[in-house]
Amino acid sequence: MWWLFFYLAKLNLLGFELFNSQSLSQGRAPDESCLRYNFKMLDAYKGRGQTTKGIWIARCNDIKPFTVAMDFEGTDSNARGEDNTAFERQSALFALAIADIILINMWYKDIGLEHAASRPLLKTVFQVMKRLFKPRKRTLLFVLRDHSKTPFEYLETALKEDIDRIWASVAEPETSRSVVLSDFFNAVHLRQRFICPRDLTGDKREAEPASGFFIRAEKIWKTIKDNKDLDLPALKVMVATVRCEEIAKEKLRRFTTDDDWLALKEAVQAGPVSRFGATLSSILESYLSQYDTEVMHYDQDVRNAKRRQMESQALEVVRNAYVTILEHLYSNTLESFKTSLEQSLNKGKGFAASARIFAQSCFLVFDQGCEEATH
């Protein structure tokens, strides 16, 4: 079996997965007392057989940040018969497309053996990695079950050499020529990863936002099942488009029902409102800022486009209030011009000179009012 763990935070998602063969007891996976999962465990006293069928998902209890574990059926099980290879590749591709850490659980005695259970498993992992379109760099961790008198440094050297040989034996697709193992995987110290739980999160610069995970996972699995090429960058843009649009709509909805905006909108009906533009900009900017915070980990081009769309829609919302302000300014300015001109003419001053002076003065007042209503 193999496992996949997700660390779901408010904004970031880190995938963590473990590969096992069916013959390696599920109880030998990372300490269940540490991960606190509730999946069914293999009982060796009742014989060895398939414990997990398909893909199961559950929450790991009492672990922060919020952690979800995905349990995949054994990779070398005979339960599926001839269908095993197809499902193995589909599930491996799915897991590797959404995870960041790949943890492989294997017998120490399998190191250096050509036909050991972990070898075809590793080959499948590497083939899938090379198939991915512009894959993110993953962390590859190995857990060796049991030990012998052989010094660890010798086992480590043999394992690295064995991994390099398996990698070299995997055919290179046209899109991945002249690549080495280190182009796809990081090397880390496993012990420190479990001693310091926070270190599991690693580098978050390429972490996927948790809010878009389920949309992305559903699309990825459908693409795999339909046997289509898995274009991860395109899927990333698709998820960003869906989530950024959802977030933008929610922020726009909250803006349209904001108490301060509604009070400002009502006040405009009675006449010009002092600092209308500044007050409105402050209210709108607070929601734009919230949007920026929630979409900061999505594709930049997508989030910028949806932000501009949100701004445009918000301007449509305030358009009537803004037009009302201008109408008040126009009406008041025109009335002031008529009054001033009439008073000047009553004092015996010339029409042309008076009209020119008061027109310039009123235009200045109108322009200042428009500026205040806009900014």
Automatic annotation (TrEMBL):
Q: Which UniProt keywords apply?
A: Endoplasmic reticulum, GTP-binding, Hydrolase, Membrane, Nucleotide-binding, Signal, Transmembrane, Transmembrane helix
**PROSITE patterns from the xrefs?**
G_GB1_RHD3
What residues does the GB1/RHD3-type G domain cover? Answer: 1-186
Gene Ontology MF terms in the entry: GTP binding; GTPase activity
Q: Which domain of life is it from?
A: Eukaryota
GO-annotated biological processes: endoplasmic reticulum membrane fusion
- InterPro entries in the cross-refs: G_GB1_RHD3_dom, P-loop_NTPase, RHD3/Sey1, Sey1/RHD3-like_3HB
Q: Name one GO cellular component term.
A: endoplasmic reticulum
Leader sequence residues: 1-15
Query: Per the similarity annotation, which family is this?
Result: Belongs to the TRAFAC class dynamin-like GTPase superfamily. GB1/RHD3 GTPase family.
Recorded protein name is GB1/RHD3-type G domain-containing protein
